[in-house]
Amino acid sequence: MRRQLDEADDGELDLDTFAAQHAAGGFVLDVREDEEYAAGHVPGAHHVPMSEVPNRLDELPRDRPVLVICQSGSRSRNVVEFLTSQGIEALNVAEGTGGWARRGWPLER
Q1: 71 to 23, 44, 64: CA distances (angstroms)
Q2: Of 28, 29, 31, 70, which residue is the catalytic one?
Q3: If you placed Cys at 18, which of 13, 35, 51, 66 could pair as Cys (CB 3.0 to 4.6 Å)?
Q4: Model's pTM, two decimal places?
């Protein structure tokens, strides 16, 4: 797991690398709004809307990377920047939940 994460030099994971990390038990943080999350999310994702992240840092692990996902990768990129500034190792999931769904991968509802 460490080697693949180290390869994410730009702080982003492509969907294939993310899927591998997810399957290996990676901590997935979905930062979309409640209704977006309820409509379908990556199985096992922890939900904290973007606006609530600063007040809920205690819910995030410090011993492993946080894999941050939104719908397309924009909001999650902003959250990754914030988490990194707080000393939390975080990586953005490029293409987000939309990319996950376009591949036909399962969504929880």
Answers
A1: 20, 16, 23
A2: 70
A3: 13
A4: 0.92
